[in-house]
Design a protein that fits this description.
- The structure holds two protein chains of two kinds.
- Chain A has helices spanning about 5-20, 25-35, 35-50, 75-90; strands at about 25, 55-60, 65-70.
- By secondary structure, chain A is an alpha+beta fold.
- Chain A is globular, with a radius of gyration of 15 Å.
- Helix content of chain B is about 80%, strand content about 0%.
- Chain B is built from nine helices and no strands.
- The two termini of chain B are about 45 Å apart.
- Classes of the chains: A alpha+beta, B mainly alpha.
- Chains A and B meet through α2 and α3 of A and α2 and α3 of B.
Chain lengths: ~100, ~240
């Protein structure tokens, strides 16, 4: 199952591609991509549902609630690499084959 | 703590509280992130964004089997609240229609009102008998709780699928007789137009039919939603 390639999804995927092996926090992703929480989290949820994103709770300090972290899975990494370079070739949200003359 | 931060925390706690079991972890994740947002207004915007989770993920399917007990308790609470609403609405209908019996002298109108009351009582009885909420015991093991929740979802799904037989159709005779009584009364007036009366009666029938079909479809949609939840539990069970 594939995700809709929205500009916001591509932004999130490219943020993960900056350091694919690192776990990331929601607020950091939001800050780096300038996406609001109401836009970012639905994307993260969809990625996680499609097993493209791995999630984990990390306990930073004893007595404090754990923090949710995210990292692309192997499949997610492949998907991100497919999506992000193509996004730079074709502006997202526009058809890739517009202007074809018969 | 500033007012903006307090408000943000309040909003996110509400989101965590009311998020569906499948979305609860995400709501908690957003709440935890608040601790790392320094600016209070940014925190408030963050919290406001989280409400989208509440609306968008309202029907989020279960993600893990360990969520089942929470989902079961939440479901029974929803059922209990729904039934209370239905009982209150039925009481309102019975009192209102009961007043009509004393206010009108037409036998047809009174019969119609009595039939509506009977239909409403039948609906309340069926809802109580087939759709009342049950208690999720805290001592249930995960497997028992899962079986219990699945059976409860099936029970409520079947109730919603049968909505025509126990909720909508029992009201039809009373409504038709009541409206026929109003028509009869209108025709007794001097200069009454039989054509206008019949048109008004037909309009009433069409409007009621439209309303009932709409209610029937809503219940069908809700039954399908419960079926998806049953499927999600079956899938989780197979995967475990």
């Amino acid at each position: 199952m594939r995700l809709r390639r929205s500009p916001q999804t591509v932004l999130v995927l490219s943020e993960f591609l900056q350091a694919p092996q690192d776990w990331k926090y929601g607020y950091d992703i939001s800050r780096n991509t300038d996406l609001k929480s109401g836009t970012l989290y639905p994307i993260l949820i969809r990625l996680a549902e499609r097993k493209l994103l791995e999630t984990r709770w990390e306990t930073l300090e004893a007595g404090k609630p754990p923090r949710h972290m995210y990292k692309l899975t192997a499949g997610g990494l492949r998907y991100a690499r497919e999506q992000v370079p193509s996004a730079s070739k074709h502006p997202v949200g526009q058809p890739a084959f517009s202007g074809v003359k018969s | 703590m500033t007012t903006a931060r307090r408000l943000a925390l309040r909003i996110l706690n509400i989101v965590v509280r009311f998020a569906s079991p499948g979305a609860q972890d995400w709501a908690k994740a957003m709440l935890r992130e608040m601790d790392f947002i320094e600016n209070d207004w940014t925190a408030l915007l963050w919290a406001l964004g989280s409400t989208r989770i509440l609306l968008w993920r309202r029907d989020a399917p279960l993600a893990e089997l360990c969520d089942v007990p929470r989902a079961a308790r939440r479901f029974q609470k929803q059922i209990s609240r729904r039934n209370l609403r239905e009982y209150a609405a039925s009481a309102f209908v019975i009192v209102g229609v009961g007043y009509y019996i004393s206010a009108f002298h037409s036998a047809l109108i009174r019969t119609g009102c009595a039939l509506v009351i009977v239909g409403t009582l039948f609906m309340v009885y069926t809802l109580h008998k087939r759709g009342s909420a049950r208690t999720v015991s805290a001592e249930f093991e995960l497997r028992t709780c899962m079986d219990f929740h699945r059976k409860e979802l099936q029970r409520q799904r079947d109730l919603l699928r049968d909505v025509w037989s126990w909720c909508l159709l029992p009201l039809v005779p009373g409504m038709l007789v009541f409206r026929a009584g109003l028509l009869e009364q209108a025709l007794e007036r001097p200069n009454a137009s039989a054509q206008a009366g019949v048109i008004a009666f037909a309009l009433f029938v069409v409007m009621c039919a439209g309303l009932f079909v709409g209610i029937g479809k809503l219940n069908r949609w809700a039954a399908d939603k419960l079926q998806r939840e049953i499927d999600a539990i079956d899938k989780l069970e197979k995967e475990s």
